[in-house]
Amino acid sequence: MSVSSRSINLAVIPGDGIGQEVVAQGLKVLSAVLPQDVKLETREFDFGARRYHATGETLTDADVTELKQHDAILLGAIGDPSVPSGVLERGFLLKLRFLFDHYVNLRPSRLLPGVATPLAGQPEIDFIVVREGTEGPYTGNGGSIRTGTPHEVATEVSVNTAFGVERVVRDAFARAQARPRKKLTLVHKNNVLAYAGHLWTNVFNAVAAEFPDVTTDYLHVDAATIFLVTDPARFDVIVTDNLFGDIITDLAAAVSGGIGVAASGNINPSGEFPSMFEPVHGSAPDIAGQGKADPSATVLSVALLLRHLGYEPEAARIESAVSADLAARGDSVRTTDEIGDALAARVAG
Ligand SMILES: NC(=O)c1ccc[n+]([C@@H]2O[C@H](COP(=O)([O-])OP(=O)(O)OC[C@H]3O[C@@H](n4cnc5c(N)ncnc54)[C@H](O)[C@@H]3O)[C@@H](O)[C@H]2O)c1
Ligand SMILES: CC(C)[C@H](C(=O)O)[C@@H](O)C(=O)O
Ligand SMILES: [Mg+2]
């Protein structure tokens, strides 16, 4: 591709609550960081509560066809108190992750210099969680009988396929191998979840033989939560299932600067479908519309998006800008918009 023909065709889904506020800042920074020769085309979609209330739909086949035409997707957050819990989360967000085969849910955690952490002694935190994104208890494989009665029985079965586990474990090994410390920790609960746990452990050990330079270890998920607080420096890359990954990445965010700075990418490694980048946090109805949301997580998700599309210098510039902004922040209280402006100025300058 010649330099002059570079372009990014981006689907933008602000979504609900603070999603609207933080995505506006993400786009501001994206426009500011891109060199003039890169043509940025964005198309905004109204998925989330707005679309649901207007049409009763969450994500139609026609929507999926349109989203597929894009190089990547930037998402704010989905979920609103006006819609029954799960309708948008399952009907939009998980549906899209599954349809676009986002099996690598990449969630980096880095405690940047000068950033407050609830942990003592400002530990070294720099790890990534590779969360499986298409299986586990998220598939909707369950049901309920005698629903609403005192005798209700509900199941939610975790689905783990050798194919699905192997591909995400392989991806995590490759990521660990590319990092200086070359260490990969499998997090599961194989002492209790014997069937799924053994599948994960066996696949992990088999793939490990192909990566002899990667140091491996294993932690039960409950113990992993201890070490994320008491000794986060021990982690380099973590690979885990969909639900454990969801839970430990909120904890990881909390110890490394807060949920307002935690970025993620839902990656389809083959490139068959667009990958989707979004903050780890949700729509935060408690602060929505107040200009209180920190847009850094979304801005850092834009950096992951740019790196995914091959714009490494621009991704690095965004990360440096966020790092500098956080270090300079002190006790100052700024609005979402002001932080977005400051970041846009830093990446442009
Ligand atoms: N990827 C997504 O779209 C996504 C992710 C998580 C939750 N959700 C949905 O969002 C809704 C709210 O969920 P929740 O309350 O459990 O989680 P949440 O992440 O929205 O909020 C948890 C807490 O973190 C705070 N917070 C979140 N983002 C922040 C930011 N950028 N700056 C400052 N503070 C921030 C909130 O104010 C709240 O106190 C639910 O409908 C949930 O299903 C969506
Ligand atoms: C909203 C919900 C479906 C989602 C998840 O559990 O994956 C969220 O918590 C996340 O971390 O992206
Ligand atoms: Mg979550």
From TrEMBL:
Cofactor binding note: Binds 1 Mg(2+) or Mn(2+) ion per subunit.
Enzyme class, UniProt record, top EC level: oxidoreductase
Residue ranges of every copy of the Isopropylmalate dehydrogenase-like domain listed in the record: 9-343
Spans through the membrane: none
Family that this chain belongs to: Belongs to the isocitrate and isopropylmalate dehydrogenases family. LeuB type 2 subfamily.
NCBIfam families noted in UniProt: PRK03437.1
Full protein name: 3-isopropylmalate dehydrogenase
